[in-house]
Amino acid sequence: MNVGLFAIVSLILLGLIVHARRRKRSETVRERARALELVKLLRRLLEHTQRHRGLSYGVMSGERILAGEQWAAQQQVEDILGEAQPYQASIAWYDSWKEVVARWNDIQQIHQDSSAAEQVLLLHNDMIGHLIETIRSIAQPNGLVPHGALSAAPAGIWLELLEHSELLGQARAIGTGIAARRQNTASQREELARLRERLGKHPYECLAHLQADPELRPLVSQAVTDTERSLDLLMDLIDKLLAAAAGKSVHSAVYFRAATQAISGLLALVDMLLNRLEPPNPA
Asked: What's the predicted TM-score (pTM) here?
């Protein structure tokens, strides 16, 4: 009798343990899915904030043709910040997210002052740096990047691509300002040259890594090729911009759009890789 009772109790305990483990796995899956959802939202915020920076710097540097796009980009940033409201319980405690919101408020207060172009540029840079840090802080604990850090594994290379998009975003903003002439200073040209050196290496290495992966190659091959071509075109435009004494060999709107195409290429690859992290649909 005691043996039978012991067996029953053991089975009950085993069932409780199995149920607890299943519930824990389910919670982990749900948390990971929600984290991925939030990362995708912040990825969109990153894209439109980068775009707003480039357009603002171009307009504040004298290229009024970009003013309409600047206003539209501002509205998109505001809209996405509104979409982030339901996630406040998840992100409000990140110091980096608090800085994202604070820097955007700062930008709105002074972006109409054309004499503050450099200050607005730096505020954007700071905001985007904190935004990338927020994305990293969400992604790593939820297994969206292997081992909580960047690695050679293609599953985590989306974060590296995202960081490279920011190099391009800074080059887009500074180059647009140079092409618009008002911001064509020696320091800005030196900064663009430094960015050009980094862009000539790091994004291409990342793209080559994707092409070399046998599992990913069928998915990303055409996108990688198109992005490399866009990068090649942008590198040529940067070289022309830096080589011209007056910095007017490239029209600012042409430069902005070429840089945007290269950034869009990288971000499209980010989206492809993030989509691969989606949990499979239940049968």
From this structure: 0.86
